[in-house]
Amino acid sequence: MYSEVLKYVFWGNSILDYMMAGIILVGGFILIKIGLCYFIKRLKNFAGKTPSKIGEFFSSGVEKIGIPFLYLLIVYLSVKTLTFGPDMERGLNYFGLAIALIFSARLVIILIGYGLKMYFSKSGDDTTLERSIKGLLIITKILVWTGAIVFFLDNLGIKITAVIAGLGIGGIAIALAGQAILKDLFSYFSIIFDHPFKVGDFIIIDDYLGTIEYIGIKTTRIRSLGGEMLIFSNSDLTDSRLRNYKLMEKRRVAFRLGVVYQTSLEKLKEIPKIIENTIKNVKDTVFDRAHFFSYGDFSLIFEVVYYVVGPEYNKYMDIQQEINFCLKEEFGKKGIEFAYPTQTLYINKSAS
Asked: Taking phi first (over 0 means left), then psi (-120 to 50 degrees means alpha), and beta for anything else, what does residue 342 get?
């Protein structure tokens, strides 16, 4: 009696076939649960011992992709042990293909994301790292999922090449209309990988200057010194000649000062040495030269050149201020007077 019940057939399969499929399903789930829990635990322990983040990446990938994929694979394999009609079999095959493509696409995206993270982590800038990866992953996801959908539709029997050919004229029109967008997109890649500037850099473009706040796929935002937001297309920036002060290793500073014409020759000869000693005593400066430059309208002019180590503007101003204070003090000790605009009027009294 029991054996006859097991041999009872409906929907093309016996009760025994359904029971075997159920055993495969439940047994597979149990094995996955036990095996993967142990494997993930070991993998996390390994990740904690490795200096790099590769162990953490693998453990995260197994949890996000490996476990769901294995569960769905067990479902697919258990169902495939049963016999169905041609349409149902075809549907199951398409279901299996869809599962494989979905998880393959997710795996590719995760691998690319990890590769980009490793590449940009060398810069040591978390803000730039986060925003760069976010922008590139958007493009990566669009390309990967588009490729997966095209591959799936092609396996369904839809002639994708014929559809694309039929849209050829429309594609040309769209490409022409989207030239500016594509140009900005390629400029974005140039900015991200070539690093002409990054978030936080102070740059000057023509008459505009400010600090980079955001680098997007199409536009870059710059906060000007006045506080307003300047928005440039990426192609405008890559096509322009810009100055990046953040990349400057040292800043060249040239300034002039004048002393009164009544200064004696001996004191004039002392001035370059006073300036040199003053600048050399200030931290993070490299003295270059100090010379008696020219005879001005109301002063004897000295030209001074030195370098500030580092790109920060506030640091440069602090150093220049300290130099000015020290020169004022030293000139006062030596009795050297700074010049200021004066005019001397000579009146010739002719004999009457």
From this structure: beta
